[in-house]
Write a structure and sequence with these properties.
11 helices, Rossmann fold, elongated, alpha/beta, about 350 residues, about 35% helix, seven-stranded parallel beta sheet, 2 domains
Length: about 350
């Protein structure tokens, strides 16, 4: 039985979430908190298996509560939001950076046509995230420094970077992108698995983390150096021989649309010998086969290491099948990209 703590300031919404989770035979609602301070106190007292955390709450908001919980009583946290406003999405991604695993949409009203589907996805997300083993996040002043591990030099000329991520990806993406120079001489294409509706907010948040330009990818636009293109909801993203972005309503691949495998296979087909593929933290295996194709085509293949990954599923599968040339932490990935691209 998975024990859940619900943190939500709205009494009506809190009662509904308790009801929704409690009717699943695999879940038990261990407690309900009315604000972030209560969530912190109850996390320490109840030691739940997973927390469903609202973003905006009195006394202590969801970001601050997440930061404190991950420092003092680490537990898997799922952020839940009904609003796509700039302030709320920014705080949501701050919470993900602080250690929350993912974000899910609050179910709309019972009379909404999408209610049942959104409610089902929320329950599935809570159950799957409860399986993730989280680690304590050190306060910034106490965070131990990681020793640098330089990547092996590469003589390959790079013209394109493709990055794929899932659970834990936003924080890893932020770490990589903020350590790249604003005059990076190649474009970056990104696929991030995330709940529907949150990609624009992710794009805005990443834009504030890096000197690079970050934008939502548009069909047929030419990928320009120094720009990060994030795949939009519900579209498979690829790239043409002449660096135009291709968005198609192709079927899901590995259960995802956009899919990392789809992006990597497209890059391998047209730019494999001149591309870097990076596969970050995430559940499942999306991206592993595509990264193998890219490596076999002559590209540089990098995966996030197990120690820094929230979930070592996707990068671990890439290592297992021989797709990974380098296995590095996010800050080291940024260093490898700088080293390879600046050598041109």
């Amino acid at each position: 039985m998975i024990r859940v703590l619900v943190a939500e300031d709205s009494a009506v919404t809190r009662e509904y979430l308790v009801y929704l989770l409690g009717r699943d035979p695999g879940l038990e609602v261990a407690g309900a908190a009315r604000d972030g301070q209560e969530a912190l106190d109850e996390a320490k007292r109840l030691r739940p298996d997973v927390i469903l955390m609202d973003v905006h709450m009195p006394r202590m908001n969801g970001y601050e509560a997440t930061r404190r919980i991950m420092e003092e009583a680490p537990v898997p946290i799922v952020m839940v939001s009904a609003s796509l406003s700039m302030d709320e999405t920014a705080m949501t991604f701050q919470a993900l950076q602080a250690g929350a695993l993912t974000v899910a949409e609050k179910p709309p009203g019972l009379d909404h046509p999408d209610h049942a589907a959104v409610a089902r996805r929320l329950v599935e997300t809570v159950k799957s995230m409860a399986e993730v083993k989280v680690v304590r996040r050190w306060p910034r002043r106490e965070r131990p420094a990681l020793p640098p591990r330089p990547a092996r030099p590469s003589s390959r000329k790079v013209q394109l970077i493709a990055i794929g991520a899932s659970t834990g990806g936003p924080a890893a993406l932020s770490e990589i992108l903020r350590n790249l120079p604003g005059d990076l001489g190649v474009p970056v294409l990104v696929v991030q698995h995330i709940a529907a509706g949150f990609v624009p907010g992710l794009t805005e948040w990443l834009e504030k983390q890096t000197p690079l330009t970050v934008k939502l990818a548009e069909a047929e636009e030419t990928a320009r150096p120094g720009v990060v293109y994030v795949a939009p909801d519900g579209w498979q993203m690829g790239v043409t021989k002449d660096f135009r972005i291709r968005l198609t309503k192709a079927p899901s691949l590995n259960g995802f649309c956009p899919s990392v495998d789809y992006l990597f296979r497209s890059v391998a087909e047209f730019h494999g010998h001149s591309a870097i593929g990076v596969l970050l933290t995430g559940m499942g295996r999306d991206g592993a086969e595509g990264l193998l194709h890219l490596r076999q085509a002559g590209g540089v293949s990098i995966v996030q290491d197990e120690e820094s990954s929230v979930v070592f599923g996707m990068p671990g599968e890439a290592v297992r099948i021989g797709a990974a040339e380098f296995v590095l932490a996010p800050e080291e990935i940024a260093g490898a990209i700088r080293s390879i691209t600046m050598r041109e």
